[in-house]
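Hey, quick one: can you model this chain's 3D structure?
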Amino acid sequence: MASFGPPTPGPSPTHFATKVELTISCENLMDMDIFSKSDPLCALYLNTTDSNWYEYGRTEMILNCLNPKFSKKFVLDYYFEMVQRLKFCVYDIDNDTYDLGDDDFLGELELTLGQIVSSKQITRPLLLQDRRPAGHGTITICAEEITDTRIANFEVSARSLDKKYLWWSDPFLEFFKATELGWQLAHRTEVVKNNLNPIWRPFRVSLRALCGGDVEKTIKVDCYDHHISGSHSLIGSFKTTLAELQVATHTSPVEFECVNPKKQRKKDYKNSGVICVRRCQVEREFTFLDFIMGGCQFNFTIAIDFTGSNGDPRTPQSLHYINPEGYNEYLAAIWAVGTVIQDYDSTKMFPVFGFGAQVPPSWQVSHEFPINFDASNPFCAGIEGVVTAYQQCLPQIKLWGPTNFSPIINHVSCFARQALTQNMASQYFVLLIITDGVITDMDQTRTAIVNASHLPMSIIIVGVGGADFSAMEFLDSDDRLLRAPNHEVAARDIVQFVPFRQFQGNSVALAQSVLAELPDQVTSFFNSYKLKPPNTYNQPEPL
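Sure thing. Here's the predicted structure for all 543 residues.
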């Protein structure tokens, strides 16, 4: 059992770090499905100071494909003076559960970040867990230093695309950057079903991924008809440059003939449709450090599950039982996450709420009560104050139920909505929910999260105990944006779920995993709303 207290610090902030972006592709993967091809996904694991591996992130899953090119990238801090061990594991996804242990293993590669960076691009055979070759499967990892923070905002449509099945196609686009070793996938749009005149959702691509920051560098765009079998049919292609694309405006789109090389031999062939770039606007994107150093403050709220399924806190079997060393999983999660995020809150005063308990003096069930029982001032001074309030609260309440998330999410959303009216990136809200299991108000929670996705807010869910966390995994919509019961789609992914016991008491790894998505969630929100850090409003725009 791990001892209770703040996590051991990681690398010193004085260490020089460079951000690198990793792009992943595979070839000749094993085919684990009988009536179709494998549906691969790549998960990245990091090794910290102990001997255990901890998941850092996952690519998207690609249906029916043995030679996948993943569009989702991994961004890591590279420390020259440290050995940073990485493991890339490829799986054939067979179900909707979060646990990759339920899926077929297609192979892995273990190496250091230094090896990747020094090679720029590295291709190695995939190995099974007994170190035998995973068939003929290989994995290719490309590394690129992040120095250019500019992005291009796109709005793209098409007209008169070729029909690939009876009278329709299901088109999508892929954008490629020219490299010394061939074309590298920069972005893949969504599929628009049954449409020869599609309008794709607006999207953003970094100039680094699209053209290496060189506006005259060639970009290739392929238009495909999507097949569920994975054997997508090429509708047509064209090549261009970012300089040409930047001419596009809402009033004057840039148009490109979509040409299929196989059809060019036909006498009367003109094209397979026209791709219309209606907008391509390049702008500087502020980084996470730009916002932090520019005056953005985090507002950290903690919500603790006091439902009866946790067990009687007076018995050692309870998840709320505090052992003689002062430890339980709730306290460990508070320490691990709180000690990292408190550095970004200048006041270090944290509102902490409980839910699912009967509360004195009325003994009514509450899903949003301050654990210090002071509704006018629910704040605790620092993480130490949170721990003290939690310990004092436990004997005064009765654990009950049900497990409702929506009240506390809506509570924090109100403050985030007020902050948005300031029209600057001055405040960002983080809600940490620590819970033991199945959620009761799923429809209301989905609606609350979709609404919150339009606000400067993120939700971190840490699951303690060994219950069924499939509902939490559903809310952490890494592969697809969450949809509310009224079919409204979330503006972005704001939920990160982590099962506590996966980390076996390693609080450093827990904090790293829990907070891994937060910087990107912060920057993507403020940049999409074109909100600048407070301290930059009177400064000239950088070139």
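One thing worth noting: Residues 156 and 277 are 5 Å apart (CA to CA).
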